[in-house]
Design brief:
Number of strands: 0
Number of helices: 7
Order of helices and strands: HHHHHHH
Strand content: under 5%
Structural class: mainly alpha
Shape: rod-shaped
Helix content: over 70%
């Protein structure tokens, strides 16, 4: 899955390949089952054991193919549910971040730097992205840490991790909706 929450090309290829294999399995199972049925119609006494084994194999193939189809469907549904949950968590985390940034009264520049800090970028990279000097970024970081009441980057990150891990997602959503109102 990519950043937009949509399946990437590799995921699509795998799903198409799996669907193709299931179709091939269904076709082979149908052929085998039809062969067993026609063989039973022309049943001779010598072939009874052989046809019983083939019939058993046909039943196993039908059951196995049915199970694969049901399992694939269940996996696809679970995957879709997880994708929705991930997108919801991303949106809710953004609401938590915005809430803290507002409480700390971060300037727009500090907000930008804080977001880049939370993404794990170092001061030099942040300075390069923002087109500022590394010393400016260091000063902005010091301001962010002071306003947040933390001693550094890892403690700033822990504020948000604590929120993410301690609140159920529904509570975060309800809190963000209440604040918006």
């Amino acid at each position: 899955m990519n950043e937009t929450g949509k399946p990437g090309p590799k995921t699509k290829r795998r799903a198409i390949a799996l669907a193709g294999l299931i179709v091939a399995n269904v076709l082979c199972t149908s052929f085998f089952a039809m062969d067993v049925i026609t063989d039973f119609e022309s049943l001779g006494t010598d072939e009874a054991f052989h046809l019983t084994v083939e019939a058993g194999a046909a039943v196993v193939l039908v059951v196995g193919t049915s199970f694969m189809i049901l399992e694939l469907r269940r996996i696809l549904q679970r995957n879709a549910s997880m994708e929705i949950g991930i997108r919801a968590a991303r949106g809710e985390m953004q609401a938590v971040i915005d809430k803290y940034f507002a409480e700390w009264r971060l300037s727009d520049a500090e907000r930008d730097v804080a977001l880049l800090l939370l993404k794990g970028l170092d001061n030099e990279t942040i300075a390069s992205i923002r087109g500022t000097a590394t010393g400016t970024v260091r000063a902005q970081c010091a301001g962010i840490y002071a306003k947040a009441g933390v001693d550094g980057r890892s403690q700033l990150m822990s504020v948000f991790m604590e929120e993410l891990l301690s609140e159920p997602l529904g509570a975060l959503r309800d809190g963000a909706a209440a604040e918006a109102a």
